[in-house]
Amino acid sequence: MENKRLQLKRKQNTPFISDTGSLHNDAVLIVSSIDNQIIDKRLNIRFIAFNSINDLAKKPIDPGFVLAFDMIDTSDTIIHPDTKEVVKWGKPSYTDVLALFNIVDNGIILTSEQAESWLLNGVEFKNEALNKEWELMF
Length: 138
Prior knowledge:
Layout: E1 4-5, E2 7-10, E3 16-17, E4 23-24, E5 28-37, E6 42-50, E7 62-69, E8 78-79, E9 86-88, H1 94-100, E10 101-104, E11 107-110, H2 113-122, E12 124-125, E13 128-129, E14 134-136
Antiparallel strand pairs: 1-11, 2-5, 2-14, 3-4, 5-6, 6-7, 8-9, 10-11, 12-13
C-alpha cells in the first residue's frame, strides 16, 4: 500500500450540509492540529471541514471533530470467527494508533490498509461512519 495522507473529501453526489443549511459538494475534512502528549500517552487529532481543498485559508464550514487516544479508553475490534468480517470496530490505544499513523510536518500519513479501514469504518462524524459519505483524497 502506498502511504496516504489523511484528508477526506465528500463522495460524489453527497454534498455536505452545513449548520446554515448550505450545500457543499466539494467539502473536505482536513487534519488541523495534532496534540501528541508523549509523557501522558495521549494523542488528539482535530479535523475541520472546509468548503473545498482550495478554501483552507478561509473560514471552516464546520468545526469538525477530535479523535482522542490514550491508554485507558480503548476497545478491541470484534471479528466474526467464521466470516472474518468486522462485527464492531474498536478504539486503538495511544501506542496502537501510533503504529497506524505517521505524524509528519504537513499532517498524518496512514501506514496500512488496516489504518484506512479503521478510520473510514470505525470513526463517526455527524452520527455516521465516515465511509458513508466521505472518502480519502489522493
